[in-house]
Amino acid sequence: MSRLPLTIASWDYDRVRPLLDGRVKVEGCDVNYLTMPVEECFERAYFHGEFEVAEIGFSPFLIALSRGPTPYVALPIFLSRMFRHSAVYVRADRGIESPADLAGKTIGVPEYQMSAVMWFRGYLQDEFGIKAADINWVQAGLENPGRRDKFPLNLPEGFPLVARNDVTLSQLLADGAIDGVMSARAPSCLIDGHPKVRRLFPDYRAVEQAYFRKTGIFPIMHALGIRRDIHEKHPWLGASLYKAYLQAKRIADADLVEVTALKIGLPWVSAEYEATQALMGADFWSYGLNDANRRTLAAMARYSYEQGLATRLIDVDEMFANGISETRV
After folding, report:
1. What residues does the SsuA/THI5-like domain cover (predicted)?
2. Which CATH number is 141's domain given?
3. By CB count within 10 A, which of 13, 51, 239, 295 is most buried?
4. How many independent structural domains does the chain possess?
């Protein structure tokens, strides 16, 4: 029987490199693995359907799922997870000393729908009572003008969001035309040392650790998706991918604790790994639908609905291809 030719696209994470270099195989498949920045991957996957399997932004996925069949069927393989307190950049001359001071301010975002921004808006509402409509939003490209939504927005009439295609968020922030930016990438004006641009949380690590202690949530940004036509034609593929990605992540995890000769180029990587496990548990970056991931996904679904993204509240059990989490490795 011939093997299924399969093109997979994602960013070049440590947890996928065993698939890239052939140490881990996908059962029944001949894989052509393409690595690219996530923005390019999302654009080509959502708008052009170029890849049989691709990394997908989970916030746009939930938006699509709330409205009907999705272009990609999601697997509980969470390629990107990240606390996003570090992703907020503000003017130092606007009296913004805490998240509570963001109410009434004008904040730029590359996409209103993006996972990083959705997570921080949820934090603002849960911890400070600031709703999405309490902030004036400007959507624009971070460093290049123009960026389009993957799905139509579902915001109420009069919602304070303006799209700009003539300027970048970094320039608006540097010029003082907006009060802050929420972005997965740091704006160049911060990197270049603009004297009036800083992070909202200079010690974001401590703030993020405190957030985890309180909530038990490790935010999910991206998952892996199988293009719907491929999933329907080859229903076995999801289990093969889940097993392969879990094996690859285990190899990456082992590299973090190798002390004979460090495989990761940080002198105290083992100490950091041990400290993270002490706070978050042994399998802190887990795949599948364990209790911790269900808590995180349920919060994400609630935020998406409350913020006018998803058109209905989605249950965790309808998010993923059936039976994948029960696959044994």
Report:
1. 86-141
2. 3.40.190.10
3. 51
4. 2
